[in-house]
Structures are given as C-alpha cells and as structure tokens.
Amino acid sequence: MKKVLFATTALVASAGFAAAEITFSGYGEMGVVGGGDNSTGFSDGETQFHNDLMLKFSATTETDMGITVGVSTEIQKAEGEANGNFAADNTAMFISGAFGTLTMGEIDGAMDFRLTENIGNPGTIGDDETIHAGYLGGYGDGAYDNQILRYDYNFGDFGFSASMELDDTGALDDGYALGVSYKTSMTGVDIGLGLAYQTFEQDGTYLPGNIDNFTVATPFAAGDVDVWGVSATADFQNGFVAGLAYSDWNFPGAVDADHIGLSMGYSINAWSFGVNWGQFDVDTVGKIKGYGLAVAYDLGGGASVHLGYGDSDGPTGVIADDVETWSFGVAMSF
C-alpha cells in the first residue's frame, strides 16, 4: 500500500433526517519506473513512464443515539496505463460507539490491524519498498473473497481486535483472527507492541506475502494454517523510528515457514528516508529475502519527489537472478 498523506476536502450534505459529512481526498503520480531483467512490478524490467490517480470518498453521520456510521471507497485508475480503467477498491462501512467499532469490507483482519510490519516509510510511486520478495504486508487476509468483518475496542493504551472472513464456496473453513496492541513511553521513546493470531484454510495453492509474485510453485500442503505474530516499534522523538515484526506460519504436513522483518525511517526538514528488509525461511526451500529503500522530498502544497529501489533474492528455481525495481517521480496529495 502506498504511504502517501492525503489532504481532505469536507462537505456537509443534508438529506432527509440526517446530516452527513462527506470527505474527498486522493493522490496523483507521474514518473519513471524500471528494474532488472526479471523484475516483477509495473514495468517487468523495462524502463517505462508511470502515472496514477486515486480518489477516496468518505461519508459519516451520527444517529439520534450517538452512534457514528460511515462508509468509504477508493476509485483508482489502473496503474501504469495511460488511459487505464477506473475501479472501486477498499470499500468498507463501519458502526462506532461506546461499545467499540464494527467494520465490514475490504479491510485488514485483526492480526494485520494490530501488528506493524513497516514503519517510517515515505512511499514510492512504484511501491518498490513493498513489492520485493521479503516483504510481508498481510497474514492471510483475502484468502477467500476479501470481505472481512472486524471488531475493535480500545481502552487506554490497550487495543483489542477480532475478525472473520467467510468462505463463500463452503469448501473451506472460515478464517478467524485475534490481535492485541499496547502503547507506552520509556525514557522519552514511544513504544508500540502487538501480538496476534490468525487461522484459515487453504487449498494448497496459497503462498504468504509477496512470494506468489515470484513463483507459482508451493511447497505447502492443503489444509488449516495457523499464524502467530509479534511486532514492536520505537519512535525516538528525534526523527528516527524503527520496527521489528516476526511471524510463525504452521502449515499442514512437514513444511512450515517463519518470517522476520526490520524497518527504519528518518525525517529531517523536508527529507524523509525509509528502509525495510524481510526474510522468509521456508522448510525444504530455504531463505527468500529482499529489501526496499524509499526517499522523499516535500515540495510543499501536497507535492513531493519520490525515489525508490527494491531488491529480491532467493534459492535458484524460486527467484530468478537480477530481480530489482526502481522508480523516480512526483506525487501530489489533495
């Protein structure tokens, strides 16, 4: 997911019995993307022009009982296409009150919501820092129809989430997740901790993280998958942030996997720098890893210049040689 800050424009619309606050935001991108001979991503290794546009619509209202109800969706042009088709994405609706928040739609499950896999990322126009082979941005979310129901409740510095995703075919068990988080401060450093669990069933074709973008072969047997994960982040209040995430994947049969990810970021004046590294250790396969770099310079007025690079590495037969991506361009948020 792109790390681009949005500006917002808010309207208040009166319709019938309620007044709804409507917010519009979005971003645009233009630049150049490329990579090595065997690169994944938007360019497939060829140097190409890149442009993108995303519009986000959000609306909220409050009932007579003080309950907040809201809906949001993103309208995005197909990336890299000069005249790409527009499609709705990440559509969700929520209900929030003293009882907590209930959200349904194309959203993060409880595990992904409570764990932090990447911190300090200023973003790139080519997503180079999040499409390398070592990156893990989800924990089984979207294994079925990508419609998730999640409940969140925060009390003080503690947070709790529970989620489920139904298998519409009836052939597989439904997916469930639980997650908790805690925020504290020690000697001037803000600390964030997360612990979570996810379970779902897969048909023998599932691959975690970005591995499926590099190979279609899977060593994992069909059946129930159990995932445990922890994360820790630190904000040193001097422009420097760092994070660590670890997850253990238990598949049916003799082949399991684990993943570790490290991320760091630094901001000074108009400059922002981010780097992340990740590695999957898969039984009988070996280590699949990669890293990403992102640099941004804030031009003011919602515009910024972005430079990105990603590199992937793994065992022969799993990942080809020279798997790298890069991008350079300008982004505008509004």
Automatic annotation (TrEMBL):
GO cellular component: membrane
Residues spanning the signal sequence: 1-20
Swiss-Prot/TrEMBL keywords: Signal
Gene3D superfamilies in alphabetical order: Porin
Any one GO molecular-function label of the UniProt entry: porin activity
Domain Porin: 7-313
Protein name: Porin
